[in-house]
């Protein structure tokens, strides 16, 4: 769920500008899941552009506080949201932890890295949401560690129906700075894609697991 359409358009514009999002329907990407996709989003590229990085940091922090109140801790989901999460925590002057997909197999076998006091109010930061499974896995780990998870905030969501169902099932509120429908609309308006490519992108989002498979 995006909170502000103007912010969503601006973030989409910035992601396209720095090529954090690449759209190439004629030469699809293959995701780790095996899905074929006409689009690829790598929000870690944001970290390499200081002006844009600072804009997103400030916007992100404000939306977190507006939606969830100021938490005790910011948690980033490893690995993509570690850098972004630290920026948000720094902007708000809060402690930061990050959550691995699973506990380490050696050492202290931590899944959560950093100091997390039981009962802490936590907002989880993600760089992007696809199905939401890995994000919600991090939430489960935080809850098992005694955290009170207030919700999750992400830069971008693909708006898959599966993700909406997963978050609803887990009764977790999700807000995003921008989303897929806003991004492809912005891409069309800036002549980044054609009308034909827009239709392909819409079709893919309806059934991404079946597209070209």
Question: Can you give me a brief rundown of this structure?
Answer:
This protein is of the alpha/beta class and 213 residues long. 40% of the residues lie in helices and 22% in strands.
Topology:
Blueprint: H1 5-17, E1 21-23, E2 29-30, E3 36-37, E4 39-41, H2 50-68, E5 73-77, H3 82-92, E6 96-99, E7 112-113, E8 121-129, H4 133-144, E9 148-157, H5 161-169, E10 174-179, H6 180-189, H7 195-206
Can you walk me through this structure?
The chain is of the alpha/beta class and 213 residues long. It has one domain: Rossmann fold. Helices cover 40% and strands 22% of the residues. It has a 6-stranded mixed beta sheet, sandwiched between helices. Helix 2 (50-68) crosses helix 3 (82-92) and helix 6 packs antiparallel against helix 7. The longest helix is centred in the N-terminal third of the chain and has 19 residues, at 50-68. The two termini are 29 Å apart.
